[in-house]
Amino acid sequence: MCANKVVARVALSTFLLDIRPQDSRQFTSVRQIHQLEGLTWAFGGGGAVGSAPYLRGVSVTEQPLVDDVEFLRQINVQLGEWERQGPHASREQVAAVLDERFWFRRAKGGTVDRDGFLAGLADPRNRSDELAAHVGQIQVLGEQAFVEVFVFLEGLRGGNAVKGWFRNLRVWEKQSDGQWRCVFWFNKPFVS
Asked: What is the C-alpha separation between 108 and 84, in angstroms, rounded?
């Protein structure tokens, strides 16, 4: 792996940090450490801790923001697991993280609402022999968030064979009950 390749991008407040593999080895005084898709990133008492010059002076000590980023990472990986489970996934758990006005755009361009998405999840013609979800970017903007997820799928959709990578762009909103719910999910084949 190229040492300078960006492997994760995390937006914290209005600052966007590119996390590179060497960054995780440069932290010295760590108050919090989180795992982000296998890459360690850390934040200390006065801001980001490390020797990377683009991290100096960036205040990222807001614990609620760090908690939101971690929750959004976990729930987006969990959505991939529920999608892999298909009809065996708990409809109630999936519905609980989707906004009542949720809108999903399929890779081929069709759109469905929350009920349509849940029906598609339970459809036996939609089978996931292999499904892996990898979070790319998380940007928390107050009560709204943007999450990019790369998904590898091999299986069936509508009875047709599918194999390949997809980019999911998901918009989340923190609701009045304090819970994050997905409002919009845009799915498109990923061409590198």
From this structure: 19
**What is the value of pTM for the model shown?**
0.68
Give the number of other Cβ atoms within 10 Å of residue 184's Cβ. Answer: 16
Parts of the chain with a pLDDT under 50? 1-60
Instruction: State pLDDT tens for residues 108-126.
Output: 999 999 999 999 999 999 9
Contact residues for 57 (Cβ-Cβ < 8 A; gap 6+)? 47
Domain parsing of the chain, residue ranges? 8-61, 66-189
CA 168 from chain centre, in angstroms, equals 9
pLDDT at position 125 is 94
Q: Are 144 and 172 in contact (CB under 8 A)?
A: yes
Which CATH number is associated with domain 66-189?
Answer: 3.10.450.50
Res 191: pLDDT: 85
Q: Where are the beta strands (DSSP E) in the chain?
A: 8-12, 15-19, 32-36, 39-43, 98-105, 111-113, 127-141, 144-157, 160-174, 180-189
State phi, psi for 65 to the nearest 5 degrees: -65, -45
Strand 8-12 relative to strand 127-141, pairing: parallel
